[in-house]
């Protein structure tokens, strides 16, 4: 297992903190820029990461009507990022419009289109919350599978899913359909707000393509040590 499969989120409030984290962990090749950093500082961090030849997951989790997500995807695709997110619950028309828009946006900017991946169900949602708060009348694994198939049938490249659903999605979705998993927790890490987690080695064994691992590394007293521990764990897979 290569360390290129580990994506570390830059969940920090400003550009200086982001640069400090990137400098602290030069071995990380794939960074995730999410809502907090992008909302506070805009696309500057993308240029900085690109200048260091890092891969970028732009996790803006678009959720809107077809015309609006298409516009947002066209703009995001022009940045030349590697992965981009949208919620599967936008529905088929919006997903199709988004898939088309990333191609158009990238072509216009003369860059490679990002892989567009859909959130099936946030990893912070438990089966109980799905049933009682969101009133979804399906079992959680069935709902996650339906969202993944909706994304696949709408022309998306993959999904963001809990590692707990990877095995099922790996057998039900096409071979090259990307499965990107947050909610990864080594046994020594706090779960925090993550409700559907597995360890790094369990997630890779189940068939995940990429692991998104944030606080177990970035909030550790020694982030480099935490990274090394995870890499050692993954050598056993
Ligand atoms: O369902 C989802 C979708 C995205 N995320 C993002 O992944 C990271 C996880 O960070 P941790 O610190 O390892 O919990 C974070 O940036 C989320 O926005 C997710 O957790 N679940």
Automatic annotation (TrEMBL):
Binding site for substrate: 11, 32, 59-68, 123, 185, 194, 214-215
Keyword Lyase assigned: yes
Family annotation (InterPro entries): Aldolase_TIM, OMPdecase, OMPdecase_AS, OMPdecase_bac, OMPdeCOase_dom, RibuloseP-bd_barrel
UniProt domain Orotidine 5'-phosphate decarboxylase: residue ranges: 5-230
Major enzyme class: lyase
Pfam family, one: OMPdecase
Record field: catalytic activity: orotidine 5'-phosphate + H(+) = UMP + CO2
Keyword annotations: Decarboxylase, Lyase, Pyrimidine biosynthesis
Pathway noted in the entry: Pyrimidine metabolism; UMP biosynthesis via de novo pathway; UMP from orotate: step 2/2
GO MF entries: orotidine-5'-phosphate decarboxylase activity
Active-site residues from the entry: 61 (proton donor)
EC number: 4.1.1.23
Function: Catalyzes the decarboxylation of orotidine 5'-monophosphate (OMP) to uridine 5'-monophosphate (UMP).
Oligomeric form and interacting partners: Homodimer.
Family classification: Belongs to the OMP decarboxylase family. Type 1 subfamily.
Official protein name in the record: Orotidine 5'-phosphate decarboxylase
Record organism: Dolichospermum heterosporum TAC447
Lineage, uppermost ranks: Bacteria, Bacillati, Cyanobacteriota, Cyanophyceae, Nostocales
